[in-house]
Design goal:
37% of the residues lie in helices and 22% in strands. It is of the alpha+beta class. The protein has a 4-stranded antiparallel beta sheet, covered by helices on one side. A 4-stranded antiparallel beta sheet has the order 2-3-4-5, with helices on one face. Strands 6-7-8-9 form a 4-stranded antiparallel beta sheet, with no helix packed on it. Strand 14 and strand 15 (184-188) form a beta hairpin. Helix 22 runs parallel beside helix 24 (699-709). Plays a role in vesicle-mediated protein trafficking to lysosomal compartments including the endocytic membrane transport pathways.
Length: 860
């Protein structure tokens, strides 16, 4: 529970240990408190507060010695009125704050203007406990007020400027409280609460009090209007919320036009001293009594007054929910009773005044600054920072950056260095001075590594020495981390030469450290010393070597390092060399690889794959390289190359006894018979021999093949199975010796017969198709030639290029029209030629289309 801090405690004031206990609750309070001081302190030193009313502009305080003070919001005295010598019971202000009504225990009632002394002054023969002005009292037609003593009197000024009195209610004891809102007056006596409608001049309800055993003078009724139709009643431990509603016109009859509905009624734990609305909630001031449980007490069950409580509750129809509860340490609270406390509120803003005889405490809703204060007090720095960032326009006492700095300090104290470093980015922003201070603070606690990855590295940068300090720290303890920073940080952040020197010094102690060597190569790259970086990458066989060469065009630097590149990655190296022939010539590469023929073969092989002609002068050399390192690709090379010397290739293949390659070369050189002989004698592969004979399609080769195979039954079987489509099988069958046993002879003969039948069927089928097609085309041609041909003025003679029809159609003329649609005048055609009576189209004959398919002759 929150407590009001004791300020200016005098030696004779009561002091209790529990009033100074620290609040350890994790729930944030809803209200904050401060004492109303300045002039109030001076007043309450010699007097005691009895009542107070609140206006948006000022406060009006009544005392036990009959004085009324007007105070500003800070508690400074602005005006003082000597009203009586005894207790002021109630003060009432109109809405404008220009008129005040005051009543006292000795029966005095005064109603006057604060800026004009004219008004109402009356002395009654009984104590007047309550007074209430019409809310619009300052307006001439609303000069009305009520007083409450042993009866409720309504005073109204008539047109003669005289006060007319009306008894609203009497006969139920003393009126203890009156509250006027709009056209409704609520008052309380010992029996209950009544509401009077000024519009109809009728009493519309009577709300009975629940606990009749409580003395009304000791436990007075608290009344508070929430709005123009909602009255909150608190009495003893009971709270009721009453709503004034309009009655249905059909139900009125002799009843008032309005009625009251109690929408919420519930009991509380303690005695109610005051009520005030807070949106849809209630602020409630409680008087608390506790039983003595201290050891050694004379009367253990004796009750004593505890600190009053200010609770915020949420009303429900038959109960309430506690939102917050604060125990208030007011001065001399041990001497106070329930009737000594009052709760007043300012409707313009959420201000609540707790009045006791010797103390006035102001409660107000906590703002964002207060929320942040509480979060910081509870060390919830992250939430405080978030709240400040969200409401940075509304906070007045706090600074987002200062909260962030406090959060960073807290994280460092708790050892959460990574989070602290990460928050630096958000908190420090673009303040380079703060950044540098934080870096040095991290250095002091030995946590430079934590902050390294969050340092500014864009347009805003720290001094180079800061980055160098961190790099040196990593270089001492963490080579991998150092390498990561070099890769991630731009080279412009630090003095590159200084870091290169530092790395070189460390390499003297550990010259084979690959991490340091790689990092040094990257530093040389930043410094544009690419040749040195390239040397290190090649030495380490680093994957980035090819990227470095391409990116910085280092081809001139690798002319003497081609072997190293090939040893590292043949495929990538060859691709790079071939892609950049304009920068490193083929001749240069061949020269460098002369001592490494296996690498030279890889290069020349890929070159040949890309272009069969670029490396033609090395084709002779490639024969030996293929024979030595890649025989499977030798035959494809010999087939595709047109620049390969066949004699040299044949020599190499014969030396190495490469039969297939030798056969190919012999056939390519025209020595097919020798090639066939090698297939038969060395490969002994009849299928390959037959395939070779088919490719060459030479009758002499077939004869040689048959002659060689005639005494070899397996070869005869192979020939019988494959020869039928190229050579007449009878030639082979006649030469087979009688009595020779040939494997699968019957199957082979059957296959020959089947193939022969198939050939006959194919020929017959082709013949039928040919005859059908010929007949179809002949019919089509006949139909075409039989069609008429339109001749009109638009046609011309293909010989003289004049119009085909004469201008005078009456004269006789002759036109010749060929089936090809060319037209001639009769006289423009040449003589019939060799065949009398047969004419041909000159144009189509010239184009070798053959003669026209006929001739049409038009005469007239």
């Amino acid at each position: 529970m929150a407590e009001v801090e004791e300020q200016g405690k005098k030696p004779n004031e009561e002091y209790t240990d529990d009033s100074e206990e620290e609040d350890t609750s994790e729930e944030e309070p809803k209200l904050k408190y401060e004492r109303l001081s300045n002039g109030v302190t001076e007043i309450l030193q010699n007097d005691a507060a009895s009542c107070m009313t609140v206006h948006d502009k000022f406060l009006a305080l009544g005392t036990h010695f009959g004085k009324v003070f007007l105070l500003d919001i800070q508690g400074n005295i602005t005006q003082k009125f000597e009203i009586s010598s005894v207790k002021i019971n109630q003060i009432s202000l109109d809405e404008s704050g220009e008129h005040v009504g005051i009543c006292s225990e000795d029966g005095k009632v005064q109603v006057f203007g604060l800026y004009t002394r004219e008004g109402f002054h009356e002395n009654f023969d009984c104590p007047i406990k309550a007074v209430a002005l019409h809310p619009q009292f300052s307006r001439s037609n609303y000069k009305q007020f009520v007083t409450g003593g042993n009866k409720l009197l309504l005073y109204e000024k008539n047109w003669l400027n005289r006060w007319k009195t009306l008894v609203v209610h009497e006969g139920e004891g003393t009126i203890t409280n009156v509250q006027w809102r709009a056209n409704l007056i609520a008052w309380a006596n010992k029996l209950g609460v009544k509401i009077f409608d000024m519009t109809t001049k009728q009493r519309i309800t009577n709300v009975l009090r629940d606990d009749a055993t409580l003395r009304p003078d000791m436990y007075p009724c608290s009344l508070c209007w929430k709005d123009d139709t909602t009255l909150i009643v608190g009495w003893g431990t009971s709270i009721k919320i009453c709503v004034v509603k309009e009655r249905n016109p059909t139900e009125i009859r002799d009843l008032p036009s309005r009625y009251v509905e109690i929408v919420s009624a519930f009991e509380t734990e303690f005695f109610i001293c005051g009520l005030a609305p807070l949106v849809d909630q209630l602020v409630t001031l409680f008087f608390v009594k506790e039983n003595s449980d201290q050891e050694g007490a004379v009367m253990p069950d004796e009750e004593f007054e505890a600190r009053p409580r200010l609770d915020i509750i949420q009303p429900l129809p038959e109960s309430c929910e506690e939102i917050s509860s604060d125990a208030l340490t007011v001065r001399f609270f041990r001497d106070n009773e329930c009737r000594d406390y009052r709760l007043e509120h300012s409707e313009g803003e959420s201000l609540f005044y707790i009045i006791s005889p010797k103390d006035i405490v102001v409660a107000k809703e906590r703002d964002q600054d207060d929320h942040i204060d509480w979060l910081l007090e509870k060390k919830k720095y992250e939430e405080a920072l978030m709240a400040a960032e969200i409401s940075f326009k509304n906070i007045k006492r706090h600074d987002v950056q200062k909260i962030g700095m406090a959060y960073i300090s807290h994280l460092l104290e708790t050892g959460d260095y990574d989070t602290a470093a990460r928050k630096c980015q958000k908190v420090l922003g673009k303040n380079m001075e703060l950044w540098e201070n934080e870096v040095y603070r991290f250095k002091t606690i030995g946590q430079l590594k934590a902050i390294s990855q969050y340092l500014p590295r864009g347009d805003l940068r720290l001094r180079p020495s800061i980055y160098e300090m961190i790099l040196h720290e990593f270089l001492k303890t963490d080579y991998e981390g150092f390498a990561t920073l070099i890769r991630e940080w731009p080279g412009e952040l630090y003095n590159n030469m200084a870091i290169v020197q530092a790395v070189s010094d460390h390499l003297k102690k550990d010259p084979a450290n690959s991490t340091l060597l790689t990092t040094l190569a990257e530093l040389y790259t930043y410094d544009q010393r690419y040749d040195r970086a390239l040397e290190i990458y090649l030495r380490l066989r680093h994957k980035d070597v090819y990227q470095l060469i391409h990116k910085h065009n280092l081809f001139s630097s690798i002319e003497d390092k081609i072997v190293l590149l090939m040893d590292f990655d043949k495929e990538k190296a060859v691709d790079m060399l071939l892609d950049n022939e304009d920068k490193i010539s083929i001749d240069k590469v061949v020269e460098e690889l002369n001592g490494r023929p296996e690498l030279l073969h890889v290069y020349l092989h890929k070159l040949f794959k890309r272009d069969h002609h670029k490396g033609q002068k090395y084709h002779e050399r490639q024969i030996g390289l293929y024979a030595e390192y890649d025989r499977p690709n030798l035959l494809p090379f010999l087939r595709d190359s047109t620049h390969c010397p066949l004699e040299k290739a044949l020599e190499i293949c014969q030396q190495r006894n490469f039969v297939e390659e030798t056969v190919f070369l012999l056939s390519r050189m025209g020595n097919c018979r020798r090639a066939l002989q090698m297939i038969m004698e060395e490969l002994e592969d009849v299928d390959k021999a037959i395939e070779f004979a088919k490719e060459q399609d030479d009758a002499e080769l077939w004869e040689d093949l048959i002659s060689y195979s005639i005494d070899k039954p397996p070869f005869i079987t192979g020939l019988l199975n494959n020869i039928g489509t190229h050579v007449d099988p009878i030639l082979l069958i006649k030469r087979i010796k009688e009595g020779m046993e040939i494997p699968n002879l019957r199957d082979s003969l059957v296959k020959i017969l089947h193939d022969y039948n198939l050939q006959i069927l194919l020929r017959e089928g082709c013949k039928k198709i040919l005859v059908a097609d010929s007949l179809s085309l002949l019919q089509k041609m006949h139909r075409t030639q039989m069609r008429g041909v339109r001749v009109d003025e638009g046609n011309i003679c293909e010989s003289c290029h004049g119009t085909i029809l004469p201008s005078d159609m009456a004269q006789p003329f002759t036109v010749v029209v060929f089936h090809c649609r060319h037209m001639f005048h009769k006289e423009c055609l040449p003589s019939s030629g060799a065949i009398p009576g047969m004419q041909f189209c000159n144009i189509c004959s010239a184009k070798k289309r053959g003669p026209g398919s006929g001739i049409l002759e038009k005469k007239k």
